[in-house]
Amino acid sequence: MAPAAWAGPVILDDLGQRVELATPARRVVPLYSGLGEIVSAMGLGDRLVARTNVDNWPAEALARPAIGTHMRPNMELMLGLKPDLVLQLAGRDAALQSVEAVRNHGIPVAVFVIDDFASLFAAMERIGILLGAKDAARQETARIQARLAAVDKAVEGVQRPAVFFEVRYPNLLAAGKDSMVSEIIRRAGGENVVAQGKKLVRLSEEVLVGLNPEVYLVQQGPMNPAPPHPSGRSHFRTLAAVRSGRVLMVDEALYSRPGPRSVQAVEELASFLHPDRFPKPSSNKDSK
After folding, report:
1. Helix H or strand E encompassing 215
2. What positions belong to coiled-coil segments (predicted)?
3. Which letter does DSSP use for residue 192 in this model?
4. What is the CA 199 to chain-centroid distance, rounded?
5. Are 272 and 191 in contact, with CB atoms under 8 Å apart?
6. Does any domain span residue 1?
7. What pTM was estimated for this model as a whole?
């Protein structure tokens, strides 16, 4: 007799692991903030039972217990919450070590690789399956795709400026071509000036001066907590971006954490790079 088909939700994650649940997940622990934001964007935030130390969106996330960091969660705290699903973003070895530790306790874990909108949508679809919410996942994906399409139309045919994205300073760290940041820059009508095919690229200031970007983005957040403005850095004053004033301080949570709010970063950056394509509403009041 052939074995009975699995009745509950089943997916293959981005490590090729088969994730099987007896029933749709009800107690979810996201070990990466963007994955928790996906669940919240689907209208299922009440199924999240924990957060990492940096999670702060939506506001109700702050009411959940913090269980440590993306790479080093507190296993005792997590197990005490009795999750039936853990979500993790692939990346450094430490993050995958936490995955193995969770699996060793018999808890299903789904790991995702997200470095562009296509992989974001694929992750959303599978998270929707695991939560028994395929329609909610499709609807949120469609909303994001519509917003991206509007930006695509607005920036069609533009001259794309060379953009540098600062991840950390000092010990300069930049966003490389294989990052969600690079995808955001491209969709916003720019071109990442850093050509290396990595997510993060270490650069000397001399190399940066040679690249001479037309636009300079500085992220602010846990990875770059108090960056001085580039105009105040002696070696940066010769950069075309600094000389022209095309410097933008941005929120790390929007740009460097792949999730449903990545489209907001695209919209914000597109309006900065191409303000003529995104006219601001008139502030004039109607005369009476």
Report:
1. strand 215-220
2. none
3. E
4. 12
5. no
6. no
7. 0.93
